[in-house]
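Worked problem 6 (solution included).
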Amino acid sequence: MTPSTVPSFSLAHWCILAAALLPLLCAYVAKWGSFRTPRSQGGFDNADPRGWLARQGDWRARANAAQANSFEGLPFFIGAVLVALQLGVPQALLDLLAALYVLLRLGFIAAYVAGYPTLRSLIWTLAFAVNVAILLLGWR
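Solution. The predicted structure is:
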């Protein structure tokens, strides 16, 4: 392969990485501010992180739920992007939709943590529709 024919890492590839990091962002948000509080006073318990998170309420519980949802949506997004890349869809359109998906997922996380369930569901639906569009880009 000549350097001009070697596939390059596109924005869509970077969006796969970004989407894979979103659950970690949610986990950080769920634990935010709890590391300085001693475990005996309700601070984060690294010996039992899942148990500690299960006992949380309010925005911490919602951030943890957003983490789970981010993991759940990740395989479909990765698969859709890889299928689109394999089928040779227009790169600019794929990049645009992949970036839109990541931005929508960030909005989803923000709405979830802030406690706006209707907005959260609307954004989730839009992100899902974008993901379906990515998958169907190569349909002929």
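Discussion: The domain at 11-136 is CATH 1.20.120.550 (Four Helix Bundle (Hemerythrin (Met), subunit A)).
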